[in-house]
Design goal:
heterodimer, A: about 400 residues, alpha/beta, Peroxisomal Thiolase, Chain A, domain 1, nine-stranded mixed β-sheet, two-stranded antiparallel sheet, about 20% strand, globular, B: about 150 residues, alpha+beta, OB fold (Dihydrolipoamide Acetyltransferase, E2P), five-stranded antiparallel β-sheet, 8 strands, about 15% helix, about 35% strand
């Protein structure tokens, strides 16, 4: 991919939260329509429709794989359809698929859709799924491993090895909530959080309380991606993909490439490549949209992106730098912690929010004059990491 | 009263997930039954894989031997599960899940047992103990080392 070869010209997003009556099909249709209208194109210009996998939603997955969406939205020019998944990293792998399709020349317009509905499953079904997902059925699950306990172990280790305090960890949740309160579609956008509230909430997996764990939610989003050439023709403010960089570490955390607590070298090398490929540095970024889902992961990523000394990100967040009005806005949609965890959709949420910010359409959460954003996603049990740099100009 | 009676759950709801040994991991589970922690070591390059896989993740050789580990290690990090686990682990709450660095170099996930929770410290030395959880399966768990 050449710098700025592809661009996003429109987005759509459904409110995130508990919507058991809103089927994932309905969400997919609606966000697709919003993205088409926002991009100002005709639906028949769309030549490829890509959907992200719905975690646990086999009926939706089957229907989408069998091509329901192009027919349902009447995309008469659609030639290619597919479903993509790499768990939490799906927003990245699906975008790379879109880039490949655009590169092939078969079409110059791709619609990407994500929709999720967790509320159709019982809490025990969700707990069973997420206790087992990402853990080894033979060597980890029999010990009562859960996703929360994995994040808790990493948090406990990170605190011990870096001197970060539990109050600093909690401040990530507080900052995310502040952003979510500026977002009409966020799940938790009504009540402010404080460090005290986060720490006094019910303990789940020590040292994590319920408010330090993300909540599974129903949601969806979509965007239209095209070539830079077409984007300039049809859109007054396209958002260009300037660069990206990726690496895979492991399936099981115990086999991580970088065994040091925080995996700082592993993450930092990826961020460095993304900066080099864009010809930009950490100081050029107006916003960091980082996929944490647990506060500890946001801190590890902040340690890696070159804006603070490794191990000191907790102090940076606690100082308010990453909150609204701070000099380093981070996760401006509130992220999985307060926006809601939409399965494979967390990365889509951050990506769509990045586009909105760069188009000046982020409403009350708008960071004035945002030009460049570093966006991140990853899947599995922290199996991989992808950094993308987006801009509303090509430097 | 356990969670099963409290919520009127079925036996299936509270049945603990058990390891299902694969062709290539079977010797490991035969070992734990005899209170041995066996590691799959590649005869081609000497790499040890945990969990064991079909062939060596370093050189792809299938030629291997099983060696006995010392059963000693160091605690890297841990968490205490106290709430919101699947029903089949509910009656065990609170319990400790930990990452342990074995002396042979691999990191594993297990439980820390036979230790008061406030005495657990990262960096502490631990040793393996064996818990027979079914006639077929004995799980290795870890406690503070008595050395």
């Amino acid at each position: 991919m050449k710098k700025g070869e592809f661009a996003i010209i429109g987005t759509g997003e459904a409110p995130c939260g508990n919507y058991p009556e809103r089927s994932e099909f309905e969400t997919a249709y609606r966000v697709a329509k919003m993205a088409i209208e926002d991009a100002g194109i005709n639906k028949n210009e769309i030549g490829a429709i890509l959907c992200a996998q719905h975690i646990m939603g086999n009926e939706y997955n089957t229907e989408m794989v069998f091509g329901r969406l192009p027919e349902a939205i009447g995309a008469k020019g659609c030639k290619i359809t597919c479903m993509t998944s790499s768990g939490g990293a799906s927003s990245f792998s699906i975008r790379k698929t879109a880039e490949g399709i655009l590169h092939s020349g078969e079409t110059d317009t791709v619609l990407v859709v994500h929709a999720q509905r967790f509320s159709q499953f019982t809490i025990n079904e969700q707990a069973k799924y997420f206790s087992i997902a990402g853990s080894d059925l033979e060597f980890e699950v029999p010990y009562g491993m859960t996703y929360n306990s994995l994040a808790a172990m990493i948090t406990q280790g990170y605190m011990t090895y870096t001197g970060t305090t539990i109050e600093q960890i909690a401040s990530v949740c507080v900052a995310c909530r502040k952003w979510a309160m500026l977002q009409p579609n966020a799940m938790f956008n009504k009540k402010e959080l404080t460090v005290e509230k986060v720490l006094s909430a019910r303990m789940v997996a020590w040292p994590l309380t319920t408010l330090m764990c993300n909540v599974l939610a129903d949601g969806g989003s979509a965007y239209i991606m095209t070539t830079a050439e077409k984007a300039r023709r049809v859109c007054s403010k396209p958002v260009y993909i300037l660069s990206d960089a990726s690496d895979y570490s492991h399936r099981l955390v115990i086999r991580a490439k970088d065994k040091a607590m925080g995996g700082i070298d592993f993450l930092r090398n990826i961020a460095k490549k993304a900066y080099e490929r864009a010809g930009l540095g950490p100081g050029d970024m107006d916003i960091f949209e980082l996929y944490g889902s647990y506060p500890i992961i946001q801190l590890m990523l902040l340690d890696a992106v070159g804006i603070c000394e490794p191990g000191k990100s907790g102090a940076m967040v606690a100082s308010g730098e990453t909150s609204p009005g701070g000099k380093r806005p981070v996760t401006t949609n509130g992220e999985a912690l307060s926006y809601g965890h939409t399965g494979t959709g967390v990365g889509f949420g951050l990506f769509v929010e990045s586009v909105r910010q760069l188009q000046g359409k982020a409403g009350r959460a708008q960071v004035p004059g945002a030009r460049f954003i570093m966006e991140n996603t990853g899947g599995g049990a922290f199996m991989d990491c992808h950094f993308t740099i987006l801009g509303n100009e090509i430097p | 009263m356990g969670i099963k009676e409290f919520l009127n759950l079925s036996d299936e709801d509270v049945k603990k997930p058990m390891p299902k040994p694969t062709k290539w991991s079977k010797p490991f589970w035969e070992g734990t039954k005899q209170h041995k922690f066996l590691l799959k070591k590649c005869k081609g390059c000497g790499n040890i894989d945990f969990p064991p896989y079909l062939y060596c993740t370093n050189c792809m050789s299938e030629d291997h031997e099983w060696i006995e580990a010392s059963g000693k290690g160091t605690l890297f990090a841990y968490a205490i599960n106290v709430f919101a686990v699947p029903f089949f682990f509910w009656d065990d709450l609170p319990y400790v899940v930990a990452m342990i660095d074995m002396d042979e170099g691999m990191r594993i996930i297990s439980n820390i047992v036979q230790c008061e929770h406030d005495k657990i410290k990262n960096g502490m030395r631990v040793e393996v103990v064996y818990e027979e959880v079914s006639p077929e399966i004995t799980l290795p768990k870890w406690r503070p080392a008595k050395e």
